[in-house]
Amino acid sequence: MQALKGSLVALVTPLSESGEVDYPALQNLLDWHVEQGTNGIVSVGTTGESATLNPKEHIEVVEFTVKHINKRIPVIAGTGANSTDEAIELSEESRLKGADYALLVTPYYNKPNQNGLIAHYEKIADKVQIKQILYNVPTRTACDLLPSSVEILSSHSNIVGIKEAVDKKERIKQLIDISENANDIFYVFSGDDPTFMQSLKIGADGVISVAANVIPKSISDICKFIRTKNDHAADSLNGLNEDLYKLLFVESNPIPVKWMLYKMGLIKQSIRLPLIDLNETFHDEVMSELNKHKLI
Predict the structure, then answer these.
(1) Model pLDDT for residues 227-249, shown as the tens digit of each residue
(2) Cα separation of 130 and 127, whole Å?
(3) 278, 286 in Cβ contact below 8 A?
C-alpha cells in the first residue's frame, strides 16, 4: 500500500463532444499530473462525475487510471454510493482492478443518522479488503459524519482516513486528535481548497483538491512548503490562488473546473446532464484569472 500525503487531485473525467469517456485526454491528464508533482489521483469522485457515469464506465475509468499510472503514485477510487450494497460492489471491483484505496462519500439523499453511517461504513470495511477513506461533504449530501462517529470508525483496520470538506478549523482539529490517538495510520485530508493550507498548518496530511486539476504544481508546492515549515513561501503562493479557488465554485463542481480545463486545451467542452457548461456570466472573469496564472 502506497502512503498518502500532500496534493491528491480530485480528477475530472474528460469526455468527448459526444459524451463518451475520452481516454486519450485522460491519459494525457494522468501523465501531466505525475510530471507536475501531484501525489495521488482520485478517480471518479464527485469531480469525476461519479453521479452520471454508469457502473461499467465507472470501473473502466478506474481500471484505465490504475494501469496507466502503473504505481507511479497512488490511485484512490471513488466508490461511495447512497446504497451500501452498491458501495460494496464498486469498492470490490475497484480492488480487483488494482486501486490502492477507496474513497467513500457519505450516503446522499437518504439522510441516515450517525448510527446508520457507522453501520454503513463498517459493513463496507468488513466486506471489502481495500483500505478506505471516509468522505464528508454535507453541503452536497445533506448528511454530516460527526467526529464522534469518525473516532469509532477509525478503529477498523480497513478504514485509514477521512476527507473532510467542512471548512471549520475546530472540526479539522478534532479529526487530527483522532488521528494522533489512533492505533494505526489514520489520514486527515482537507476537502476544501480555500482553507486547505490552514488545515495543513495544524496537522492535516494533505488535500484532495479540485484546484489541483488546473494548478497541480502550485498545490503540490504549497503542501511541500508546509511540510518543510516554510510558511512564508506557502502563504505567498496560496495568496496568488485565492481568486481561482473562489471561481472554481461559482457554479456546482465540476462545471467551472471542466470549463477551465477546456480553455487550457486539456479536455473537450463536455459535461453530462443535468450539469451544463459554465454560465457566460462568469466567462470573462475566469479567462482573466487563467491569463493571470499563465494557463492559456
Answers:
(1) 999 999 999 999 999 999 999 99
(2) 9
(3) yes
Three-class DSSP category at 220: helix
Active-site residue flag, 121: no
Number of domains in the chain: 1
Q: Tell me how far apart the alpha carbons of residues 267 and 75 are, in angstroms, rounded to a whole number.
A: 21
Of 62, 55, 65, whose CA–CA distance to 78 is shortest?
62
Q: What one-character DSSP code corresponds to residue 191?
A: -
Collect contacts of 274-277 with beta carbons under 8 A, ≥24 apart: 275/49, 275/52
Residue 176: phi, psi to the nearest 5? -65, -40
Q: Tell me whether residue 135 is one of the annotated catalytic residues.
A: yes
The predicted model scores a pTM of: 0.96
Residue 189 included in any domain: yes
| Pairing state between β 75-78 and 187-190 | unpaired
Q: If we measure between CA atoms, which residue out of 173, 227, 200, 206 comes closest to residue 76?
A: 206
Annotated active-site residue in 121, 135, 187, 245: 135
CATH of the domain at 46: 3.20.20.70
Q: What's the domain range around 143?
A: 6-228
What is the SS3 assignment for 146? coil
Residue of 97, 131, 163, 263 with catalytic role: 163
pLDDT in tens, 86-114: 999 999 999 999 999 999 999 999 999 99
